[in-house]
Design brief:
Nuclear Transport Factor 2, Chain: A, six-stranded mixed β-sheet, alpha+beta
Length: about 180
């Protein structure tokens, strides 16, 4: 049986690796995605209804623009069946056309169908999204590709992070101060 941790990991592998078929292991067929974008540096439709619509927005269209995508959940995975799970996330990626580096963060609010433990609702809040010049690629990718995937502690993510990502890390560390 699928667990919430399995569903979340399948979603991340699908999105980061441009593998829309994996969303069948993450979402119910009639799942709903809601986006709360609180930065002007990236845009998504506010609501997507159905697994195919989610695949179109978060995997297919996303992969047309971005590559080298690494997303980590900044939490321990849920250890048992649950109806909901909330965690911060961190992403780093590059723009295909400009080679600019993007680093962002926000929060996932997952809701799971009781019988299948697949996600039937997901709210993604994007709190911050930095755009960095292409010359930051090496340092950012070296750092993010070394993080535990897909579950990583905030402390581990902040350790050895390049200085150029400090605005995103400052948001993530908001509760630690």
């Amino acid at each position: 049986m699928t667990t919430p941790a399995d569903a979340i990991a399948a979603y991340l592998r699908a999105k980061d690796g441009n593998r829309p078929h994996l969303l069948a292991q993450a979402f119910t067929e009639d799942a709903t995605l809601t986006m709360d974008v609180r930065t002007g540096n990236i845009a998504f439709p506010p609501v997507s209804a159905g697994r195919e619509a989610i695949a179109e927005v978060l995997v297919r269209r996303f992969a047309q623009t971005y590559e080298n995508v690494y997303t980590v959940c900044l939490a321990s995975p849920p250890q048992r069946p649950t109806d909901s799970f909330r965690c911060d996330w961190l992403v780093a990626m590059t723009e295909k056309d400009s080679r600019a580096v993007r680093v962002g963060c926000g929060r996932y609010d997952w809701h799971f169908a009781p019988a299948s433990q697949l996600a039937d609702r997901l709210l993604i809040t994007i709190e911050a999204m930095q755009s960095l010049p292409a010359q930051e690629l090496g340092g950012v990718m070296h750092w993010v590709s070394g993080l535990a995937y897909p579950w990583c502690s905030l402390q581990a993510a902040m350790q050895d992070a390049p200085a150029c990502v400090s605005p995103v890390l400052a948001y993530l560390g908001r509760e630690a101060v």
